[in-house]
Amino acid sequence: MGQPGGVGVDRGLGRSSDASNGRADSGRDNASSRSNGRSDAGLERARIASDNLSNANRELAKHPRLANALHVNANDLRAGYQAALANNPNLTFGQYVAATRLAQNLGDNHPNITRAAILAGLANGDSIGETLQDLGLSSREAKEAKKRAEKEIERGRK
Fold it and tell me: How far is Cα of residue 35 from the mean position of the Cα atoms in its chain?
C-alpha cells in the first residue's frame, strides 16, 4: 500500500481541516500569526532536519563501511547525527562525518578540538577550516587536517 500521506512533520495536516470542520485551518493560522512566524520557522527547521537525516540514512546504506572507517557503528553514527541536527538543522551528514574524523585525528594533540567544538563552530556559521583555526590550528595545519580527513573518509566510502 505504501506510506501514508503526510509522512514526517506534516503528518495529518491534509486531513485535519476535514476532521475539524475547518477549525484546524484557523488554528494553524493563529499559531503562525500569534508567534510572529516562529511556528512556521520551527516547522521549516524540522523539515530541513528530517531531509538531512533521510540523506544520512541513504549515505549509510550506500556506503556501509563508512561507519567502520570512523570506528563507530552505523546506529551510533546515525544517532549522533540526529542529536546534532537538533542544534543545527542545516548540518549536513558530510560535515558531521568530517567533524567526527577531525576530532579523532586531532584530539590527542589538541584536546580542545572535539566533535562538539567543531559542530558548535559550524552552527555559528563558520566553515570547518575557520573553526579549526579558532580552536588553535594555523591555516596550513587546518588545511592539512581537512585534506587528511577527506582522504580517510573517502577510503571508508569505497
Answer: 26
Give tens-digit pLDDT for 53-74: 777 767 777 778 888 888 888 8
- Residue-wise DSSP of 5-46: SS-GGGTTHHHHHHHTTTHHHHHHHHHHHHTTTHHHHHHHHH
Number of C-beta neighbours around residue 121 at 10 A: 20
> Global pTM?
0.68
Angle at 98 between CA 52 and CA 64, to 5 degrees: 70
Nearest-angstrom CA–CA distance, 47 and 54: 11
Q: Which three cell numbers stand for residue 24?
A: 484546524
Q: Is the Cβ–Cβ distance between 87 and 116 less than 8 Å?
A: no
